[in-house]
Amino acid sequence: MYKNLVSAGAVALVAACFLAPAFAQTSKPSSASDEPLKVGFVYVAPLTDAGWVRQHDEGRKAVEAALGSRVKTRYIENVAEGSDGERVIRDLAQQGYGLIFTPSFGYMEATLRVAQEFPTVRFESITGYKTAPNVAVANARYYEGRYLSGIAAARMSKTNIAGYVAGFPIPEVLQGINAFTLGMRSVNPRAQVHVVWLNTWFDPTLERDAAMALFNQGVDVIAFHTASTAVMAAAQERGKLAVAYHSDMRSVAPDAQILAVTHQWGGYYTQRTRAVLNGSWKSGTTWGGVQQGMVRVEAFGPKVPKAVQDEVLARQKDIAAGKLKPFAAREAVLDNEGHVVIPRGHSLSDDQILNMNYLVAGVQGKVSK
To answer: How many percent of the chain have pLDDT more than 90?
Structure first.
């Protein structure tokens, strides 16, 4: 989430990065200081009641709850990527913060530049892909939750048409659209997904307008990969159904929400902070999903029958156990231009998932340039 467009070469580097086990630390511990570790968090958007930033702030709170007086945390919200981000990250390092989390792709280069200036400070570039001796990277397999939400969406749709309000056409977003579509079509082969590209992450007015336009096209259930709750509010207003993303959004859409695909950063943030405290922190890469507890579906809405809830939760257990892979094909999977993208009996490698640049059959739309 919150990424700028990634070049093909950069995406290839991503594929090489996210192959390490989650939360691995292998260096030897060193003695801990009596002073609390100062831990900084830089947020790319305002901290609201739900959404991308909210989930990362829940992770910050989990660090405080787990480590108590051993840490002192601080967050700075609504920091633009680019020069502003670099300034804030550098300010935190200068103020003695020993661990700094930067959860936005657009902070990656700034994080690396500041890290060179402060080699004793540890940095965690969330959704980045470039490491350094004092910079680790982490991301989550959000597409696993998208697949599960697609199953629920297909069961709840009466028109067989879902909508998808999308930010930028980067691999992470394409993974989500495709997994959602494959999840829908696993239980309803007639299902279609209509995509609207916004080329922005956070614009509540634009997000709402896109949702309303999709509802006017016969969409009765909608998903999104943007930052606000505007799509959920639009669904509530129009009497439609929606899949919440990042956070539980029933406070905004109590009747519209089918379920929420939530991101869980508390475990990762706590383990990485504890590693700094005990001297075992080591640069590395993490790409965790349902199995690692970093992504899950939850918070079913009141209109979702128990049978649908049970089905989705059973499939979630299958993903956690490694029995179900969203990008594995019993029958050949085609893109929406008719080319085979997953041969029958095959599954995509991590490298192929991370380099995804197409939309699968069933998606009405094109990869925006």
So the answer is: 84
| CATH number listed for the domain at residues 142-263+295-364 | 3.40.50.2300
Under DSSP, is residue 138 helix (H, G, I), strand (E, B) or coil? strand
Per-residue pLDDT tens over the stretch 48-107: 999 899 999 999 999 999 999 999 999 999 999 999 999 999 999 999 999 999 999 889
Element holding 207 (H helix, E strand): helix 204-215
Helix 230-238 and helix 204-215, axial crossing angle in degrees, nearest 10: 40
CB-based burial, 43-79: b 16+ in 10 Å, e otherwise = bbbeeeebbbbbbbbbbbebbbebbeebbebebeeeb
**Residues 290-326 pLDDT 10s:** 999 999 999 999 999 999 999 999 999 999 999 999 9
Burial category of 298 from C-beta neighbours within 10 Å (exposed 0-12, middle 13-18, buried 19 and up):
middle
Q: For the CA atoms of the chain, what is the radius of gyration?
A: 20
Strand partners, 74: 40
User: What does pTM read for this prediction?
Assistant: 0.86
The enclosing H or E element of 194 equals strand 192-197
Instruction: Express each pLDDT in 246-284 by its tens digit.
Output: 999 999 999 999 999 999 999 999 999 999 999 999 999
Question: Which tokens go with 361?
Answer: 């059959």
Residue 305 CB neighbour total at 10 angstroms? 11
Superfamily (CATH) of domain 8-141+264-288: Response regulator (3.40.50.2300)
